[in-house]
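[recover] target loaded
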């Protein structure tokens, strides 16, 4: 993966939320990323892994996320690609979709070795791992579902890998994509620019030089005041090196708003379907891209806008408190028409649901790094925590249109209320109801 040195190429200028001084050539940045993740092996192996017993469960939930009711996105013997899988994402995905053939690829052989060891310890047989760059692959129309989170924004030009992901999708395939939210990354990118200016490593990031100095920065700077940077660094002070380096010292970092991500997607023959709810946003309580205003007229104007325009407003008004840019996309030439969020909500109301009742097999990590299957299966998914969703869940008239329960409970039939119910009851993040 040898590439040209930075001295031979034009260096890009960084802007707020971005650190691009080394983003000079795809092969050069691939080399930097391979070395970086070979050293930090991120993310670290999880303590617990789960596999849902019900066949096709997560494929069905993925369909519900985008309003494809009762139609699994990943059919039996379907194909899934985890592009830039790190140490564990491909294994987690293979456990979620045991009926599919899963391919995981990464630049770091060290990260793949960790994943391979864990895969072998579980006896997972539907996962293949390859060392390859997304920039170089030639997959065309091969995958029902492509998962790529936290990857393309670390490339020399994200347009290139996103174009590869687009071409790899089948016509009805779904891409789950996460890129950095620009408003989340201003302090991170600013720190990167500062430390590389200090060490003269801007065009050639050097983790061995940067890590000890970054730690010293945190120790001496975190308590120096109440401003944004000191507070941010204080939050990372106790992080292990892998998380610390991934947050602060990645070689190249692009970031986006909803609007700039949509333009990038369009340039790659992709369209945004809807937002995906990730675990990080769940933990932070930021799972909905829609705002609620006290002024009724303002709410009507806002709600009448196309989805991505509405989410762009949310992105700019909430700034650092806006959700992560984690979305489902499909090809613009897909045979499946895109449904608006309001259409999905309207269809949610008319569908018949039953309570999800399945079990999970749990695998617990041993001290030696391998996994052992727990003796007992656990009930899944439990009960909703959101009060209104929990009430509807308990009173649900199963196999009848959901509207019957909604009307019978006297629930306010506004878009925001129905959408909140949909999110908290019938999505991959909150899979308490499944369409019958």
């Amino acid at each position: 993966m040898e590439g040209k040195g930075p001295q031979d190429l034009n260096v890009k200028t960084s802007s707020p939320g971005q650190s691009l001084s080394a983003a000079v050539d795809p092969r050069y940045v691939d080399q930097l990323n391979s070395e970086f993740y070979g050293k930090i092996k991120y993310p670290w192996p999880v303590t617990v892994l789960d596999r849902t017993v019900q066949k096709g469960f997560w494929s069905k939930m993925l369909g519900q996320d985008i309003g494809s009711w009762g139609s699994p996105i990943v059919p039996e013997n379907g194909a899934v690609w985890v592009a830039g899988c790190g140490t564990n994402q491909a294994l987690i995905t293979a456990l979620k979709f045991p009926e599919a053939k899963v391919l995981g690829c990464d630049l770091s052989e060290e990260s793949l070795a960790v994943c391979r060891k864990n895969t072998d310890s579980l006896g997972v047989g539907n996962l293949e791992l390859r060392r390859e760059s997304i920039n170089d692959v030639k997959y065309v129309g091969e995958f029902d579902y492509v998962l790529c989170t936290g990857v393309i924004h670390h490339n020399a030009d994200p347009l290139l890998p996103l174009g590869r992901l687009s071409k790899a999708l089948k016509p009805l395939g779904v891409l789950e994509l996460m890129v950095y939210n620009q408003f989340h990354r201003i302090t991170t990118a600013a720190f990167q620019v500062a430390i590389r200016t200090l060490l003269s490593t801007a065009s050639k990031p050097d983790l061995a030089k940067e890590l000890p100095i970054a730690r010293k920065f945190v120790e001496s700077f975190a308590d120096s005041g109440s401003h944004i940077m000191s507070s941010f660094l204080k939050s990372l002070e106790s992080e292990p090196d892998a998380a610390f380096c991934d947050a602060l010292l990645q070689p190249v970092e692009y970031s986006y708003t909803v609007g700039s991500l949509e333009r990038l997607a369009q340039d790659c023959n992709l369209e945004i379907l809807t937002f995906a709810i990730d675990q990080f946003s769940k933990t932070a309580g930021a799972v909905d891209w829609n705002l609620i205003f006290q002024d009724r007229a303002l709410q009507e104007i806002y709600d009448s806008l196309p989805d991505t325009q509405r989410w762009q407003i949310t992105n700019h008004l909430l700034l650092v408190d806006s959700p992560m840019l984690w979305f489902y996309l499909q090809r613009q030439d897909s045979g499946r028409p895109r449904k608006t969020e309001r259409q999905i909500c309207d269809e949610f109301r008319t569908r018949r649901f039953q309570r999800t009742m399945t079990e999970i097999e749990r695998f617990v990590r041993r001290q030696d790094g391998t996994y052992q299957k727990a003796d007992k299966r656990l009930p899944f998914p439990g009960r909703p925590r959101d009060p209104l969703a929990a009430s509807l869940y308990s009173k649900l008239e199963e196999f009848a249109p959901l509207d019957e329960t909604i009307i019978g409970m006297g629930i306010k039939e506004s878009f925001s209320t129905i959408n909140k119910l949909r999110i908290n009851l019938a999505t991959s993040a909150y899979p308490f109801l499944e369409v019958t």
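[recover] notes: Confidence is low (pLDDT under 50) at residues 1-10.
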